[in-house]
Amino acid sequence: MKVTVIGCGRWGTFLAWYLDKIGHSVTLYGRKDSRRMKELTESRSNGTVELPESIALSTCLEDAKDAETIIISVDSQGLRALFTELCEHRLTDKDFVLCMKGIEISSGKRLSEIADEFVTEKGSVSVWLGPGHVQEFYAGIPNCMVIDGKNENIKRRLVNEFSSELIRLYYGDDLIGNEVGAAAKNVIGIAAGMLDGKQRSSLKGALMARGAREISRLIKAMGGHEISAYGLCHLGDYEATVFSKFSHNRMYGQAFITGEKCEVLAEGYYTVKALMALEERYGVELPICRTVYSLIYENKEPLEALNALFERKLTTEFY
Hints:
Blueprint: E1 2-6, H1 10-21, E2 25-29, H2 35-43, E3 56-58, E4 69-72, H3 79-88, E5 95-98, H4 111-116, E6 124-129, H5 134-138, E7 143-149, H6 152-162, E8 167-171, H7 175-197, H8 204-221, H9 238-243, H10 248-258, H11 267-282, H12 287-297, H13 302-310
Parallel strand pairs: 1-2, 1-4, 2-3, 4-5, 5-6, 7-8
Antiparallel strand pairs: 6-7
Helix pairs in contact: 7-8, 7-10, 7-11, 7-12, 11-12, 12-13
């Protein structure tokens, strides 16, 4: 399969490496002024992943015209702008796979909904979600992930073409639940980092149990299957997000609480804003997400806010 990967960050670069490794013809696209793309062009390495010469590097979107499938791994809040560019280059008739997690702040839309606004009837939109860190995959440590989408034939083709011993792919059957769950787990990751920063790591068990229940209610209210919150895209991704030393969201949460500088991209920072809008729109209480929001955006006292979260009034439904 001819594949173009758009986005030369850690995940996009890894996906280019992975798809090339399992036999696909891969082009990795990055913007001409991108520091990461310059680094890859000069050394074919980003410090973690080393790209073989078989992967073409491009700074021109036009080079994606021959691709059968376009993989996208960019900042979730920049997806709409990217698709506007793709429209200008008449590239919206492809099969797109979104390998990113988030919810658009301005509209509250899932990322596949944004892509659907642009992709023509000849194309399709799928999502590739679930646990795993680049550092572990690149070291040969396997994991399981999910591909979901509205087009069953395309979904099955992608699972068959992209599965390997390194990444075992499953068929998703709840696009709403998987996307919302995947986006929301980043907020739970920030909360976990905050607990670490305040030496409250033992509360991560309660955080995971209550977090999954909290997000399951939102998924149900939005029209998805609440059980999806307990699958690979949310609860199944907690180990990689809540505990891992590689988790950007956990790292950000800990640094925020301790007042340390943290320059990593933490998607949960943006997603929590969107979740607050969804909480109001669907009338679903999201206490963990609201606590994270209050700490980041409202300057609440950290220990007081975290203690209040776990001292909430008990009801017949504990979570």
